[in-house]
């Protein structure tokens, strides 16, 4: 697989390995970079003021969540947190209260899943609003 010139080249590389690199006789002259002249900054009076800036209108208020959906979310989020805190702090909860928290979680989860929309709101809506 090796060609004769490959062997010769390899022998030259090995023979010259470790020799110092030749330095140029004269170093190149050092040229200091010249900074380009930048345009002057406009005075503060010339810059656009607060009157000329766009101020967006205030956002609309958040929609009210129906009470049944709010109760379901509370059951889904608060019940496991209360059970976890009680378990970590070794607080004994009456079994009826513990079962009520479990049922609140399962009932809230089931309610939210049952009331999910069956399909997308608008299949051609890309979400962009101008």
- Name the helicity range: 40-55%
How many helices? The count is 3
Query: H/E element string?
Result: HHH
| Average pLDDT number | 83
* Secondary-structure content class: mainly alpha
Protein topology:
Elements: H1 4-15, H2 67-88, H3 95-114
Helix pairs in contact: 2-3
Features:
single chain; mainly alpha; 3 helices; 42% helix; elongated; transmembrane helix; membrane; transmembrane
Summed up, what is this model?
The protein is an all-alpha fold and 130 residues long. The protein has helices spanning 4-15, 67-88, 95-114. The model has no long low-confidence stretch (mean pLDDT 83).
Structure, described:
This protein has 130 residues and is mostly helical. The chain has a domain at 67-114. The chain is 42% helix and 0% strand. It has three helices and no strands. It has helices at residues 4-15, 67-88, 95-114. The longest helix has 22 residues, at 67-88.
């Amino acid at each position: 697989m090796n060609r004769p010139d490959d062997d010769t080249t390899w022998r030259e590389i090995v023979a010259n390995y470790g020799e110092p690199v030749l330095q140029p006789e004269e170093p190149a002259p050092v040229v200091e970079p010249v900074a380009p002249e930048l345009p002057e900054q406009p005075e503060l009076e010339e810059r656009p003021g607060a009157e000329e800036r766009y101020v967006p209108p205030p956002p609309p208020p958040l929609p009210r969540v129906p009470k049944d959906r709010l109760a379901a979310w509370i059951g889904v989020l608060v019940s496991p947190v209360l059970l976890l805190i009680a378990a970590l702090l070794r607080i004994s909860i009456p079994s009826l209260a513990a079962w009520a928290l479990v049922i609140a979680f399962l009932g809230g989860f089931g309610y939210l899943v049952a009331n999910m929309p069956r399909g997308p709101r608008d299949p051609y809506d890309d979400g962009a609003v101008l």
